[in-house]
Amino acid sequence: MTTSSDVIDDAPEADGDTPLPSATLGGERKRSIEQITLLLFITVPFLAVLAAVPLAWGWGVSWLDLGLLVFFYYLGCHGITIGFHRYFTHGSFKAKRPLRIALAIAGSMAVEGPLVRWVADHRKHHKFSDAEGDPHSPWRFGETVPALMKGLWWAHIGWMFDEEQTPQEKYAPDLIKDSALRTISRQFLLWAGLSLALPALIGGLVTMSWWGAFTGFFWGSLVRVALLHHVTWSINSICHAVGKRPFKSRDRSGNVWWLAVLSCGESWHNLHHAEPTSARHGVERWQVDSSARLIRWFEKFGWAYDVRWPSRSRIDSRRIKAGKDAPREAETAEAA
Ligand SMILES: [Zn+2]
Ligand SMILES: [Zn+2]
């Protein structure tokens, strides 16, 4: 037993993994202040969404507020999907230094937790997807309807409050080695604060009024964060419970078309688990994947290189052949 437990006295042991490091990278400790902060980050924006509909009816929504909502939504969303997910977690392309830093900051502005923790959790999710050890499988409690309801709640939100921590040194040593990324990850609250403050600042300056600052904050910060949270979490919950499964993967990931635009292309989740390092998730011509489109532009500008675009033959080799591989999986869940 190491003495690290003296340093982080309330940190649990993680399922026989390496002990937690004593130096915090942001997000190692979830009890106390961080648990409360997390709870606030989750509930306050959500309450704003509940209030949004009647308020929009009464106040009307200005084009400025709508613009702030859409701009900051897609900034954070692509920061997560292109940055935290496809680049930092899976290495589906290489990035020049300025792009690497910009993606780390843009992803932090999605208010989904520090970079290193996000990546560690997600790598663990792929290692154990829908099996014992997956931090957020909706199948955790079984396959009956009540168990799946409980599991969906767990995969969507509950897992974030779990005392069990993904050991960051074990799952994200490559990021920890980079001092700039380590710093950005540690400064998570700063980036989250900036992300919440900017819409208010812009709203106030453009209208030159406190009311403009308030509505900018309401729509551009609170409603935007809530929407992005629930869309991101839906990839963990909905996209592991329903959706089409045309590709071979050892889990229950599905392609959910109606989340494609809002999730910046991440809801083509079955392909993603079948081919995790692919820079494109929506591999069919009609499958919207704005993240892949942006990576393409980054590549043209010379900011991204060695992009792992999947070849047609590679994709076809991952398809489930009728009557052969796991037909049960292929036929289920036409819900999407
Ligand atoms: Zn998944
Ligand atoms: Zn992934």
TrEMBL record:
- Protein name (Swiss-Prot/TrEMBL): Stearoyl-CoA 9-desaturase
Localization terms from the record? Membrane
Q: Where is this region: Disordered?
A: 1-25
Give the molecular function GO annotations. Answer: oxidoreductase activity, acting on paired donors, with oxidation of a pair of donors resulting in the reduction of molecular oxygen to two molecules of water
UniProt keyword annotations, A-Z:
Fatty acid metabolism, Iron, Lipid metabolism, Membrane, Oxidoreductase, Transmembrane, Transmembrane helix
What GO biological process terms does the UniProt entry carry, in alphabetical order? Answer: fatty acid metabolic process
> Acidic residues bias located where?
7-16
What Gene Ontology terms describe where this protein resides (cellular component)?
membrane
Residues spanning the membrane = 38-60, 66-88, 188-211
Describe its membrane topology: Multi-pass membrane protein
Q: What is the lineage of its organism?
A: Bacteria, Bacillati, Actinomycetota, Actinomycetes, Kitasatosporales
Coarse class of the protein's main subcellular location: membrane
